[in-house]
Amino acid sequence: MSPEKGIHQYSPGERKNGLRVLLVYTFFMVTGFTMLMPMVAVHYVNDLGMAATLVGVALAVRQITQQGLAIGGGILADLYGTKRMIGLGVTVRAIGFAGLAFADSALPLFIALTISAVGGALFEAPYQAAIAALTTSSDRTRYYSLSNWVSGVASTVGPLLGAILVGFDFMTVCLVSSALFFLCLVVITRLPVIHTSRESSHVSDNIRLVGQDRRFASLIMLMAGYWVVAVQMGIIIPLQAGISSGSKGGAGIALALSAAITIALQYHLTSRLSRSFSNHAILTAGIVLLSAGMGAIALFQSFSGLLFCVAVISTGAVLVRPTYQAIIADTANPKALGTYLGASSLSLGFGGAIGHITGGALFDVSVESQVPGLPWVTFAVIGLTTAIALHYWVRRAGVTTTAFSDCK
Known about the structure:
Elements: H1 12-47, H2 52-80, H3 82-100, H4 106-134, H5 140-165, H6 170-188, H7 203-211, H8 214-230, H9 236-245, H10 249-273, H11 279-296, H12 303-331, H13 337-369, H14 374-397
Helix pairs in contact: 1-4, 1-5, 1-6, 1-9, 2-3, 2-4, 2-13, 3-4, 3-6, 4-13, 5-10, 5-12, 8-13, 8-14, 9-10, 9-12, 10-12, 11-12, 11-14
């Protein structure tokens, strides 16, 4: 079902203004996140001497908390509106990131990351539901591609800004990141009022709709495998970049390259491929490409070789992000849009948590046992297995989705 057949209709002016506000919000939100999070592993492992496994567990707790509670953010959005919940969420996230500035041991690190995760849980599903509510099936994928392009720009600015500010100290990075999330609070006041649930619906009814939707649940479970691999861009790839480049700035360079690939390819590549291929075909191809790039890291020792692999991984992610977002939005029942999109975060929650813990542990083992290829080969296998399973699931379920050719 498509949200445009659902609950509320918006005038062209409301839709246009709302989607513009969300693009500005996206830029500041992603900039604030990407300037800080890649520096967390580098700071706590290299500067404070924590084990990569411990930092991986901390990041996993943040991931599982945010994504595990995201369904709650979706339910609250259905009850109280997306605008209110996004504002509350970015405020809590800002407080959590400010707390990281003073976290110099494991316990404060876990607490600050958990607070930031609760903030993310409050705003992520309402943010996605707002996009789904303000777009239609004919322009949704185009908007997701544009939104991801803006995210790519922000993901270029963020790590570079973080790399510059970390030259002062890690505290400065945390406080500037926190300030950007407070700026998001200001931006979101310009968003029109958006409702994502029928007035007569109840929380239990919305949850029941999601629980009984087997096709939606199976897609979410399969995509957890993708997130196990994809989250390595936030933990072991920055660590490997630091080793390969010989400096802390290597992580920022690698992530800036990833963002530059997104900027260059996101909109035009998906638009061209969509003329000939379905959503699921593009999604599967993206996972295969990402997995191949991950496995190829085992073959390179140089920083330039790592950057080549990052480019391949990022190209795969370019194919995955908008297609997966569009599939989720099209599959969600408009009677409970926020709840559905909150539930979709469970794949990132569980897959991301497993990925962070496994990534940190495998990185430590690879260093101690001097088997540098271990984590990269492992994640390549997981990714390829996910792609194969998704391909056969589509065939068995008889799922068909419209190509993006109507999104001109």
